Amino acid sequence: MSGEVPAAYDPLLRRIHWATAVLFIAAMLIGCYCGFQPPGTSPRRELLEVHKSLGVTLFALAILRILVRSATSAPPEPRSFGRIVRWAARLNHWALYLVLLAMPVTGYLFSSAGGYSLKYFGLFSWPRLFAGDQAIARIGEATHDTLAYLVYVVVTLHISATLWHALVKKDETLARMWPATKAEP
Ligand code: HEM
Ligand code: HEM
What we know:
Layout: H1 11-35, H2 44-71, H3 83-114, E1 119-120, E2 124-125, H4 134-169
Antiparallel strand pairs: 1-2
Helix pairs in contact: 1-2, 2-3, 3-4
One protoporphyrin IX containing FE is lined by residues 17, 20-21, 24-25, 69, 74, 89, 93, 96-97, 100, 155, 158-159, 162, 173-174, 176-177.
């Protein structure tokens, strides 16, 4: 990159972003649906297996993404962004990184300590930390369920803001994350 200011995020980071977007929205919708179904019933049980596997995959992607993000330079914020929009976008992105890490961790703690299934796409089971610790299971569940509201809010704001910038403002916001954009200006 030889000191040039990039026009878009690192290509690998962009690929991870879109894989995350698809898997995260799937995990969120499945979790939300399961939250309304009585425990132990079908298809809640089967769907939760998929939900947990997607969640663990998202955790691995989040770690990889944070490494790539720290090793590469982000493009400068769009020139049209005022102070408030700039801070709103930063706050939104920090909240998204927070839930990307906190949802899998709390979900894992809750299932692991509570003695619930921890299979990865039916292939193998993850090791169980804090097995039988009901306090950890309760805290994990309560945090997972409470953070779910934050998830709905920040993801809705994130997608709405993108649509606003792409369709109404017609600025470069989406191009910065679009896979086909050239990294150099
Ligand atoms: C990025 C990853 C994840 C996201 C976005 C996510 C999101 C959600 C959401 C929105 C709900 C519905 C909450 C409710 O209605 O109470 C939920 C429920 C649930 N999640 Fe996750 N989750 C993630 C990862 C995980 C992981 C890794 C596990 C376990 C290993 C897990 C286990 C569960 C369980 C068991 C429920 C049902 C909770 C209940 O009915 O009280 N989640 N999740
Ligand atoms: C259809 C769904 C989505 C669209 C259209 C979308 C679009 C975008 C766009 C255009 C950007 C660049 C914004 C900028 O640089 O100012 C961005 C950044 C970002 N997106 Fe999304 N996104 C979506 C889903 C998600 C989801 C589900 C997550 C995570 C839960 C997520 C996490 C992030 C993060 C953390 C950034 C900041 C990147 C960084 O600075 O490292 N996005 N998104």
